[in-house]
Amino acid sequence: MDAVRESAGLINAIEVYYDAVPRAASTVEQVGPFTVFVGRGPWGYYARPTLGTTTTFTSGHVAEVRARQRELGVGQEVEWQHTLSPSLATACAEAGMAVHRYRLLVVHREVAAPAPGAVRIVSPDDDLTAVVRAQHQGFGGPAIVDSAEVEHVRRRLGSAATVAAVGLVDGDPVCVGMHQPVGQVSEVVGVATLPEHRGVGWAGAVTSALVADARARGVTTVFLSAADDAVARVYERVGFRDVGVACAAEPVSAT
Predict the structure, then answer these.
(1) Range list of β-strands (E), 108-171
(2) Cβ atoms within 10 A of the Cβ of 146, count?
(3) Across residues 34-38, what is the average pLDDT?
(4) How many CA atoms lie within 13 A of 92 on its CB side?
(5) SS3 for 75?
(6) Distance from C-alpha of 255 to C-alpha of 251, rounded to nearest angstrom
């Protein structure tokens, strides 16, 4: 029973975080049982079930929020925790969306993963173009970097809304990851390694550095989502364990 209460507490804390973290860089609008976050910078956001809702979602709810997102000119994306909104996966599928499920993991013990090279926290004064480029390429994106995104990252690093860690080989970024603290909760996001440097431990080492930084800032709950079991194993080795399932949906044409 204690474990059940602990998991419920973590899931609720993560849900409060999910509602809070986009607000610093977005405008917010209520559409039915959803909260729509509209980014004010280069990072896009999504709709989420309004905090505390107990709605049984239907395809009609999803169609309504997608219509509003189209009017706003933003991506038709919905994100949620399955434990708190179990009806939303079916509703999104019935509304013609592709539903993706991710393992939601939290740190339950810190394990300092050995780094294959230098790992450090990124400063706002660093060459952020190189950092952002490495992150893009680690996710299979282009080497071209928008200066607006670089300056957005610089502002977030300067305010500590985002903290980045980087793995370096000969001074060049080969792995990048971030965490975004809000109060006592932070999510590790965007961990990406250049293809030619994978399989030697960079992701684990960068994640360990981010967890250590979060702890130093007073964060008690550090979590992330993993796309599949192979990715989850990387994080399990540095002390993460399952707590739930995070879901995201997008139009089928976007897959």
Answers:
(1) 118-121, 163-169
(2) 12
(3) 97
(4) 26
(5) coil
(6) 7
Q: Which residue type sits at 42?
A: P
DSSP bridge partners of 35: 30, 48
Q: What percent of the chain has pLDDT over 70?
A: 98
- Amino acid in position 235: Y
Q: How many helices (H) and strands (E) does the chain have?
A: 7, 11
Question: What is the value of pTM for the model shown?
Answer: 0.93
Tokens of 97: 């969306």
Average pLDDT for the chain:
95
State both tokens at 150. Answer: 């670089």
Contacts 24+ apart (CB under 8 A), 110-113: 110/208, 110/211, 110/212, 110/215, 110/238, 110/239, 111/208, 111/237, 111/238, 111/239, 112/208, 112/212, 112/238, 113/201, 113/204, 113/205, 113/207, 113/208, 113/237, 113/238
**Torsion angle, alpha carbons of 131, 24, 87, 190, to 10:** 10
* 250/79 Cα distance (integer angstroms): 9
d(CA 110, CA 92): 36
